[in-house]
Every structure is written in structure tokens, then in C-alpha cells.
User: Fold this.
Amino acid sequence: MIIPSIDIRNGRAVQLRSGREQLLDGGDPFERLEEFSIAGEVAVIDLDAALGTGSNADLIRRMARYKPIRVGGGIRTHESATNWLDAGAQKIIIGTKATPDFLAALPKERIIAAVDAFDGEVTVEGWTMKTGEPVLDKIEQLAPFVGGFLLTQVEFEGGMGGFDVELIKSARALAGEARLTAAGGITSPGEISDLDELGVDAQIGMALYSGALSLAEGISAPLKKPVNGDQWPSVVCDEAGNTLGLVWSTKESIEEAVSQQKGIYWSRSRNELWSKGASSGNTQVLKRIDLDCDRDALRFTVEQKGPFCHTGSRSCWPSDFGFSTLENSIRTRIEEGDPNSGTVRLANDGALLRAKLVEEADELASAASPAEAAHEGADLLYFLTVALAQKGSSIKESLRELALRNLKVSRRPMLAKEDN
Assistant:
């Protein structure tokens, strides 16, 4: 799979050749993150921190709250490692300090050891210093302590001229259960596919920034076993993970979907590209594309406007009542503005809404049976959802906040606030 890369220097996304010569300015890192996150997790590297010339930490912390990223560059203390994990980084990349003693104190499954190599020799301090240690020895030494490796072939980085595949094969064998990501010189869909066959991810920067490789090409490169020669079944889900329907994709439709960030698929009945909602107005904003484990089907995660199904239903399958159903119902009532609606009255009367939230929270806390707790919990969920909508937020944003908190490795004591 493809791991898009954003290297940051002085607050800008940049691309270097062999870690030294800046070849291009990639613009606003947030814009690149919005674009690249359709492929999933994005690698964000603080070059200034890696080289000891500055820091982009505040910027990268905001990025970690916005989209799933793995963070690297200048992480050389347990405190900084923990701070990044607490800040929402899905994983952190440790380079210079990647030793068994240092790594043993960190959560293995969220640690990637960066093994940067020039002609097979480990380099550190932002690729500026050779250590004399063979990179394969380093990988074998660290494999028990990490969940992944980032192997960068520095001499090929930014050059778009290929890479040493035999080194990658040897590294993959020594990495064991740790997932290997290769970087440096990877340019074509065929190379991404070949690496995927080996069980290796491809971290790519220059090829994406320069236009030599499109993001859609990178995403679709590992696809196998098409139907009718060039089509793949594609499950469409909303951001809560609810399945909306089954469609079909071709590499052409994937290219259009990614470039326009819309739900664009292949119509088998009309034998042409189909942009969801072009005629009905029930459009989609594309958030992410994932391939299944066998690489013969896709999942599109979208922000769906209105119903998905042509019958007028949100989904092509019967759906259970869930958070999205509750939220959509409440938002519809507020938008319609019926003066006789209790939901509308709550949304327009902050004092009443606050009183009901406090009342229902107290009743849930005092519930004496499972049935009573369920009843009071339902009341509280309703008022909570109205409050989120009234304040311009959503259950999705609250769940995102909980997901970020779940990534924390530090925990605060559970204490009640003192009354003022």
C-alpha cells in the first residue's frame, strides 16, 4: 500500500534529494494532508527537528488532530515520544535513538524504527552522519521492539530512479512480524504493486509532488483479479462506518474520484463514469479509499448528502437505528424550524437545553436498574445530540475526540471537579 509523505521545513511541505538538496516546495502541509489522506495514514516528517535547526511541532500537532498521521523527525527522548503519542499520532518514527534500551519503554505496536541507509550503511542525525553499521544488522537487532520499520534508501531519495529491491527483500525477511515500509526512489504503480506482493508498504513523496505518479495510481496499484477485465466491486460507507451500497470502480473512475474528491464510480448499465448525485443532488465528498486484504475489492468512505439509494433510503440495505439516524433526524427538525417541535424549541432556548442536560445526567447517575439506565441514557443521548447540533458540532466530532484520547499513553487521574 502507499504511504504518502509530507516532509516539513520552515512550515512548508518540501522535497529533498538525498536529504540535502531541496528540489521543490510542496506548499501548505494542511492542503497536502487533505489531499493525501484519501489514501489513509500519512507520514509527516519534521525535517527541522531531525536536523536540529528548528521545530514544526505546533503545526504537526494540529495535523495529528485533523487526520491519521505517523510522525517522525527529532524524536530523541521518551518525553517527546510520549508527547507525540498523546497528541494523536497513530505511530511515531524513531531514528537516531532507535536502540533496544530506548524502544523497550515505548508501546511496541505504535513504534516505527527509521533505518536510513546509504549504500547499505546506517545513517543518523537527519541522514548527515554515517555509523558504519550494516542496515540489515540494525533491522535484525530492533525487530523484537517495534511494530514497523521505515527503510529509506537515502541515495535514491528524491531521485525517482528506482531502488535496491534486493535490500528490501532481505530487510523484509529480517523484520519478522514488524511491517516494513520502503522509501526512496519509488515512482511507478508497478513498483508499488511489487512491494505490496512482498508485504511491504511504499512511502512516496517526490513522485506525488512532481506528478510522475498520481495518488489514485498509487492507491489502485495493488489491485488484483478485476471483473470483466477492468472493474472492481466497491462498498460505499459513511463516516460512521455504515454501509450505504455496492458500486463498481475502474482505474479511470478511481482517478476521477481522487482528483475531484467526490464519489465517482463506473456505471455498468450505461458503460460510463457516474458521479453520485449529479442529477439527484445527493452528492458525496470522498474521504478515504481502502483496499481489502485480498486486493480485489475497495471501500469508499464518503460524506453523504441525503439518501444514497434510488428508493430514497439512506442505504440500499435495511439499517438499524444508530447515531447517524438520530443525528440526521434532529438536524432535519432543526432545519425545518417547526415552531411546534420540541427539538426546535430546545435548539433555540439555551437555558432550557442546559437544564434538561443536567436533569437527565442526574437521572442516569441515579438509575437503579438496567432498564431504568437504558431509559435515562436514551433521554440524555437525545439532549446531547441536540446540544451538539445547536453548537455546530456533531457526534462524529465527539467520536473523533474519543479516538484521539484512546491514543494517549498518559492518563490523568479520574477526579471530580471542585465546586466553586
Remarks:
- Residues 370-390 form the longest helix (21 residues).
- The chain has three domains: 2-220, 232-304, 323-406.
